[in-house]
Design a protein that fits this description.
Blueprint (H helix, E strand, L loop, with lengths): L7 E9 L5 E10 L5 E11 L4 H15 L4 E5 L5 H14 L1
Parallel strand pairs: 1-4
Antiparallel strand pairs: 1-2, 2-3
Keywords: Metal-binding, Nucleus, Zinc, Zinc-finger
GO cellular component, one term: nucleus
InterPro entries: ZnF_BED_domain_contain
């Protein structure tokens, strides 16, 4: 994926079930070197909290595992923790 993608847009969503189990899904949207639009699910997993810091850490780990460093945009829902999570993610990606 990192060889065919210069930069990407991420869509991140998380939700909780009534048993207080939280899941997160990260989807990458990118145009490859041949100008073909792609959408790939990078991760779908259980998260141990709804805080912005937890979300940012998990997103940064996923990007690192996939060898991806150039994020053009991030789309999230209007959960209040997402504002802090995006700010935290920006700091992690810049370092």
């Amino acid at each position: 994926l990192s060889q065919h993608c210069q930069s990407m847009c991420l869509t991140i969503d998380s939700w909780a079930f009534c048993q207080n189990i939280i899941y997160m899904c990260k989807i990458s949207h990118f145009v490859n070197n041949n100008w073909t639009l792609h959408k790939k699910i990078l991760n779908f997993f259980n998260v141990k909290g709804h805080t912005g810091e937890v979300k940012a850490k998990k997103v940064a780990q996923c990007l690192s595992n996939w060898g991806l460093a150039h994020v053009l945009s991030v789309t999230v829902d209007n959960a209040s923790s997402n504002h802090y999570g995006i700010e935290n993610l920006k700091m992690r990606l810049r370092s």
